[in-house]
Write a structure and sequence with these properties.
The chain contains five helices and six strands; from the N terminus they run H-H-H-H-E-E-H-E-E-E-E. It is α+β, with helices and mostly antiparallel strands.
Length: 186
């Protein structure tokens, strides 16, 4: 019926002009957005945090900050940088009544399993009980609290002390853990 009143050429011209208008509006909106991803927030340049998320490992406190970071974000790369090649981990097996030790490779596998199987790890470093340091070696005994959340109904709380021996690399001047004696309730 419409074709009887309006000739076909006029309808076609109106469709073309509507398509052009929609196309121009689309291009205008695209340019107006400026290629900004609406789902990604902008980087906050004014964020002020007194301590960096990663430390440079030239200080003992930097080692503890990176240790905490690696557990919080379950980052085995950061954790691995903390451990010397000859690292030894030792804990007390209370059921068997003796100490169990393992080397760096087994510790990395064990820690990776912990990181993968937990939903959340909250590590809090407490007071330093003992600290001795010279130019190439250090021993630090420090209290800690660790909450391991496997799921909302399975949360394990570990309290104790980490007895750490550290060595400073002569070339890089960074500290690495050579021995960790776990003195916890776990």
């Amino acid at each position: 019926m419409l074709s009887e009143i309006i000739p076909a050429g006029v309808i076609l011209k109106e469709r073309v002009s509507i398509n052009k208008i929609l196309y121009i509006l689309f291009v205008f909106l695209f340019l107006l957005m400026g290629c900004t991803n609406p789902f990604a927030p902008a980087f906050d340049e004014n964020f002020d945090d007194n301590r960096p998320s990663l430390s440079d490992l030239t200080t003992l406190e930097g080692v503890f900050q990176n240790f905490q970071y690696s557990y919080t974000f379950k980052d085995t790369l950061i954790y691995g940088k903390l451990l010397a090649g000859d690292f030894i981990f030792t804990y007390r097996d209370y059921d068997q009544g003796f100490d169990v030790s393992w080397a760096r490779d087994e510790d990395m596998l064990t820690t990776n399993g912990l990181f993968r199987n937990s939903e959340r790890l909250d590590l809090i470093w407490n007071n330093i009980i003992l600290s001795t340091e010279d130019s190439t070696a250090a021993t630090v005994i420090r209290g800690f609290n660790l909450n391991i959340t496997f799921n909302p109904t399975d949360v394990v709380r570990v309290d104790g002390r980490a007895n750490l021996s550290l060595r400073k690399d002569k070339e890089t001047q960074t500290w690495q853990i050579t021995r960790w004696l776990d003195e916890s309730n776990f």
